[in-house]
Amino acid sequence: MSEYAKNKPAGFKNAIEKVAIVGAGGTIGSHLVSALLKSGRHTVTALSRKDSSNKLPDGVHVAPVDYSDESTIVEALKGQEFFIITVSPTAPRDTHSKLVQAAAKAGVPYIMPNSYAGDIEQVQLGIDTLTGPPAKANREEIEKLGMQWISVCCGFWYDYSLAGGESRFGFDFDKHTLTIYDDGQTKNSVSTLAQVGRAVAKVLSLPLFPQDENDKSLTISSWFNKAVYLKSFVVNQNEIFESVKRITGTTDADWTVTHENTKQRYEEGMALVKKGNMSGFGKQLYSRAFSPEDPSNCAAKAQNELLGLPEEKLDDATNDGIELVKELQKRPERMSS
């Protein structure tokens, strides 16, 4: 049954104003915070370890928590209207569940789970890469506890994946080497970190519910227990390589290029993961996503136009990715996809 703003009690604000986030200083979290602040419509509260050295932007409220003490998380989340979770894949496995349970106890109605990746409806890809089942379990737990979720389907983060080493888009900028999957022609839909931030801020800046049954305008409730779909580009590795050469002023002669079979590379990565060596995780994830039979491409579902997201230029994003290489070398890895 549809909910309408007209049926809400007196004093009801038909908007999300108070947003809490875990991982505000991380790779994706920092872009979400930046976009939310830029919208001017939200009070952003960052849950942060008491001993954290993360520098957060001006305007962010910091709520110090002890993640081993649930009561501190519950206290930090009281009064919050939307909770964004971004956590590292290296975080303890029960981290997400602890955060969701604390949010339920604090009375937070809506959650964005830690899933900023490919299409949640592309089930086999999720199973093959080990990402689908835990993400599905996270969404089901949110619903079971009486809350609603909005997930983000954006594909790989373009700039981060370009900067993230050979196991991702295949580039090692220090050694000037490139590993191309198969013939490099398989396309993925990908999004820049900034575009993900913009999409989330756009959704959370909409009215919460339609005013009444005649109100057909876009609302946050349109996405309850669904995913927001977006993209920046639909590209293959060969196109990325051409962009890299343009930005760096290099030619084929400056790079050592090797080709690897995606199926074989996936199996090698998965074998490492099964031995407990997580260096194989990125290897199996990206090679499987670039599999020609079932690539990660949700471009057909992208809601860019609906959300008024800007068109981006590939070379600009490539330049950002190359700049990010230097930044990643300076800090420990914090990512959520």
Automatic annotation (TrEMBL):
Keywords: NADP, Oxidoreductase
Pfam families: NmrA (PF05368)
InterPro entries for this protein: NAD(P)-bd_dom_sf, NmrA-like, NmrA/Isoflavone_reductase-like, PCBER-like
Domain NmrA-like, chain residue ranges per copy: 18-158
GO MF entries: oxidoreductase activity
Classification via Gene3D superfamilies: NAD(P)-binding Rossmann-like Domain (3.40.50.720), UDP-galactose 4-epimerase, domain 1 (3.90.25.10)
Signal peptide: none
This protein's name: NmrA-like domain-containing protein
Source organism (scientific name): Ramalina farinacea
